[in-house]
Amino acid sequence: MAHYGLYCHMLLVFSMICPFISSFTVITSDTVAPSALIDGPQTGFTMTNDGSHTEPDEQDAVYDIMRATGNDWAAAIPDVCRGRWHGIECMPDQDNVYHVVSLSFGALSDDTAFPTCDPKRSYISESLTRLKHLRALFFYRCLSRAPQLIPSFLGRLGSSLQTLVLRENGLFGSIPNELGNLTNLKVLDLHKNNLNGSIPLSLNRLSGLRSLDLSVNRLTGSIPGLLLPDLNVLDLNHNLLTGPVPATLSTCGSLIKIDLSHNRVTGPIPDSINRLNQLVLLDLSYNRLSGPFPSSLQGLNSLQALVLKGNTNFASAIPENAFKGLKNLMILVLSNMNLHGSIPGSLTRLTSLRVLHLEGNNLTGSIPMEFRGVKDLSELRLNDNRLTGPVPFERDIVWRMRRKLRLYNNAGLCVNSESNLDDVFGSSVGLCEGETKRPGPSGTVQHLSGAGGGNVTADRATYVSSGSKSLGFFGLSAFLVVFNFAYMLLSC
């Protein structure tokens, strides 16, 4: 399937050049059953004048669908599969009759050429059900000024459909149970609509689903027990979901990304999570989770980013070996969790760690001496705690991290004069008791002296999947997930 391979490579390039602008679901298409069509979807640019033509009923259906989106011009095209417009893909059968396999609407960027929609009157036409070979359907920002329900007739699109993307369309109401009839669906993306109600259990019938993105809606109720063994991406961030993190997630053994952030999820992190040995990103931030840290986290051997910030009910100490064995962990964010006790020196033994955020807690004691020579750490936030004692860092590490080292609002921290740091932190960290300032010129580095200055990494406004980001912690996190997911798809 040469065309699909090329398409996946194009998507990989797109994902890598703009992961910090906006994230879109990776759309893939696989042959899941013997097909009457000849492999390799073709656009009007590749067809020849050999008498081939589009199946007549499908042609009429496309005219209806285009009129429903405000694209009346399509009715003037004698053969839609030979009409030379992007956004439609067709494939021939053995009789050289072409069938529509993909329809895409909406301007992803200034460079895309998918048909745009008339936002004031566009709707999803029921004529879609006449396209018996349709594999991919994509609507992006097409229906936002004419809000409507997700039509239940989409469940009649049959076993051929593999990708359904209805992204940022202002859709409201509940997710129809009928979507569970799309038994060969690989990608379901309903990101950033106004959907409410609960997540239907009928989605468990989508046994081959790889990506489920229901983020940035108003979904309520608990997260259902999903039993989807091929699921790679589960993104439910920015909803109103309650209840615990379901232990049944451990049955989704192919997961590489879980994002449940910005919900109202309660209870502890389930011990069964250690079965997800392919997991790369786990984001449970801004929920109502409670501690302690489960020892099962040590089993997440592939984990590269763990984000738990904003769970103020967690109220736990950090065990010395909480993250033992996480040799691939690059990003650890435990900010604003009401954590207490001391900082474990064992964190320095996470050899891949680059970003560590512990700010806004009630941590006490000194910064462990093991932090003195952390050569690879590029961002460390310890501000707004109750730390005491001398700062152990070497001067070259402090200068290398610059703004990304934050120690302010720890009244008990100090520097020894022999550390050669007394001219670095300004008023935010003073000399230890009984120390005198070294003679000679000094110049305070202003970017380390306070809480508000500098170009620091911004907290995200929405998940990976929904808005612009600063190039920093969340940009790196997005890149890791996109790269790993794209690599997995290309190696299938």
From TrEMBL:
GO biological process: asymmetric cell division; cellular response to abscisic acid stimulus; defense response to fungus; regulation of antifungal innate immune response; stomatal complex formation; stomatal complex patterning; trichome morphogenesis
Listed transmembrane segments: 7-27, 471-490
Principal location listed in the UniProt entry: membrane
Subcellular location: Cell membrane
Any GO molecular function: receptor serine/threonine kinase binding
Name this polypeptide is given: Leucine-rich repeat-containing N-terminal plant-type domain-containing protein
Alphabetically ordered keywords of this record: Cell membrane, Leucine-rich repeat, Membrane, Repeat, Signal, Transmembrane, Transmembrane helix
Pfam families on file: LRR_1, LRR_8
Organism: Brassica oleracea var. oleracea
CC annotations in GO: plasma membrane
Superkingdom, natural source: Eukaryota
